[in-house]
Amino acid sequence: MITLTHYLLVSAALFSIGIYVVLSKQNAIQVLIGIEMMLNAAILNLVAFGKFDKINNAGQTFALFAIVLAAASTAVALAIILNVYRRHQTIDPGKINQLKD
Amino acid sequence: MITIMFYFMAAIALGSALYVAGSTNLVRSVFMFFITLFALAGLYVLSLADFVAVTQVVVYVGGILVLILFAFMLSGRENLEGVKQQKNRLLSVSKLPAIVLAVAFFIVLTNIFLKARAGNVDWIKQSVVKQNVMTPQNASINGLGVNLMTNYLLPFEAISILLLMALIGAAHLSRKEEAA
Asked: B175: exposed, middle or buried (C-beta count within 10 Å: 0-12, 13-18, 19+)?
């Protein structure tokens, strides 16, 4: 029998892997992938708890909203990454240390 | 059977996520992230959220990953080689703080989840008593649609405006700069 704790543990592991990716990668796109992983861990929790709310469907609805928010933030973040690449010729977050030319 | 499926999906999701974390090849890590997202969609199906799973496949795999691939190809070949040159030493000194923090976070979260006993929370017990729990027989997309258009209409509209704003902003940011 799959209980809520199973889902919570899977999402905890996924969240930790996401943190590791965000902190250790030297490429802004990989950092973005790590952020998506952490978001997915949160969505997994929402869905797992949403199973116990048949009438209001709160968990699944907000999982949908979280997916849409992730899509919006990714589009903006990728546009910013492209701009940064055009200006600095690198997307290593550690090397971009100027505010203005 | 469902238990086996759950462990299978969870193993695929975590394994491919670990591969994303460990690999030096950027393209390969992006495609392994595809697999993570598919396995997560499978987990959503197992917890009876089929519409969320389909949305996950359409939005993440169809939208976000294609965007990531685009950005990745537009941002030049030299950073590919740059990534390849740094050796894949998972335990190199520069990554030690990240590993320590991630492991510590995992231990804290696991402790909390094991002590919280999520199955014994009050509202979950009550929903079991009131038969408010989804089962494979009565879970349907119908209730989700009705709720989305009645209870959650305001957040729904707000998020649609936010999505429009974000897309216009992204298009504005990524246009070619004129000489000015």
From this structure: exposed
